[in-house]
Amino acid sequence: MKGSGNNFTTLFRKFYFMLIPTCGQRTRYIYKNRHLFRRVGKQLMFQPRHFPSDPELISFGDNVLVASDVCFINHDIIAKMLNQKYNSLVFKGLGGGIEIGDNVMIGTGSKILPDVRIGSNVIIAAGSVVSKDIPDNCVAGGVPARIIGNFDNLVEKRKNLKVSYRDGVDKIWQDFYEKRNKKENI
Fold first, then answer.
1. What's the pLDDT tens digit per position in 102-123?
2. What is the model's pLDDT at position 128?
3. What is the 3-state secondary structure (H, E, C) of the chain?
4. Which terminal residue of the chain, N or C, has fewer Cβ atoms less than 10 Å from its own Cβ?
């Protein structure tokens, strides 16, 4: 971590971050310690419990929501294995920054690999592996992540949702069973 001083401080910060109980408190910790990341825009929500290993190589735009278990990977360890195999220091590690644009939601369990830019107005589906740049105004998902939809189309679809998690548990189950009954009667 930039300016962390030593490995003990870095380990302590990562361990402390894992113990912070809520995403709101973790996000407040990030805002209080903005210097840990390259950039932290307005309205970041950060749910992961694990602090990225190289936070100074990550930049967040405005209105970015990062769901639980998202993993930011800024380097690989292939060079270490190759250097040990060939008893040399010839191989250099692959690494790079990760830049997240404005108005981005990264779904649960996604992995963001080094040297990737995620554009603005982007949804990354849960469980995706982002290994290449994702352009503005799209929905991306899969392994590896690819464009699977248009941001504006998703916005329109979401405007027309009939039931929200805010409607309560009973309403959600009612809608769940109504959808299945319609399918069975077709």
1. 999 999 999 999 999 999 999 9
2. 98
3. CCCCCCHHHHHHHHHHHHHCCCHHHHHHHHHHCHHHCCEECCCCEECCCCCCCCHHHEEECCCEEECCCCEECCECCHHHHHHHHCCCCCCCCCECCEEECCCEEECCCCEECCCEEECCCEEECCCCEECCCECCCEEEECCCCEEEEEHHHHHHHHHCCCCCHHHCHHHHHHHHHHHHHHHHCC
4. C
Read off the pLDDT of residues 11-49 as tens digits, 9 standing for 90 and up.
787 788 888 988 889 888 888 887 889 999 999 999 998
Bond prior to 144 in cis (omega within 30° of 0): yes
Task: Say how far residue 96 (Cα) sits from the centre of its chain.
Answer: 16
